[in-house]
Design brief:
- The protein is mainly α.
- 72% of the residues lie in helices and 0% in strands.
- The protein contains 12 helices and no strands.
- The radius of gyration is 20 Å and the shape is elongated.
Length: 200
């Protein structure tokens, strides 16, 4: 007769603050599975620990809180969304944005993005992670598109931060209002505005 104990995954040994690659992979896989099955509201470090066979102290040593772990899961899956360079900033941004919205709509971690932003408004640690780690890393692809446009002379270098803020604002408006499908037709026009040459 199989006991409950035998059905649990083998407990993984910790190697301290330095991450064990096998344990890290197991924890991230468990986090993805729990997120897919339970959603953001049902996601917990306890559930991840049980599924991964990793101790909670190990998880908290590597990720300070639930938000940090979810951010890493999001980042790993978001890496599949690639920027395409066509030689035109508006077209590049439109293609990238459409792929990003597909990711937000169709994947468990993408659908969690709205909840992460909401949690950051009430949790200082989650806000720090969103502002200081998540955003800089997640905007790298878009920054490469803007940098390429600067090198082509489409836009000025000192305009990038303002244009980037406009880009983020457009995207977050639709994701935070849960209206990605309704807003999809507006992507090309919005990206033309973000990429428009300013009159001197």
């Amino acid at each position: 007769m199989t006991t409950a104990k035998a059905e649990q995954p083998a407990r993984r040994a910790s190697i301290g603050a330095r991450r064990n690659p096998a344990s890290q992979a197991a924890i991230l896989a468990a986090a993805r599975a729990v997120l897919a099955e339970e959603g953001y509201a049902g996601f917990s470090i306890d559930a991840v620990s049980r599924r991964a066979g990793a101790g909670k102290p190990t998880i908290y040593r590597w990720w300070k809180n639930k938000a940090e772990l979810l951010i890493e899961v999001y980042a790993a899956e978001k890496a599949r969304v690639k920027a395409t360079k066509t030689g035109n900033l508006a077209e590049d941004l439109a293609l990238y944005t459409a792929a990003l919205w597909d990711f937000w709509r169709d994947t468990p971690s993408g659908r969690t993005f709205r909840a992460l932003i909401a949690e950051a408004q009430n949790d200082a640690a989650a806000l720090d992670g969103l502002r200081d780690k998540f955003l800089p890393e997640r905007l790298l692809d878009v920054r490469t598109l803007f940098a390429a446009a600067v090198s082509r002379g489409e836009i000025a270098a000192d305009e990038v931060e303002t244009r980037l803020a406009l880009y983020v604002g457009f995207n977050w408006y639709y994701v935070l209002t849960d209206s990605l499908d309704e807003g999809r037709a507006a992507i090309p026009a919005a990206m033309r505005l973000v990429a428009a040459q300013l009159r001197s």
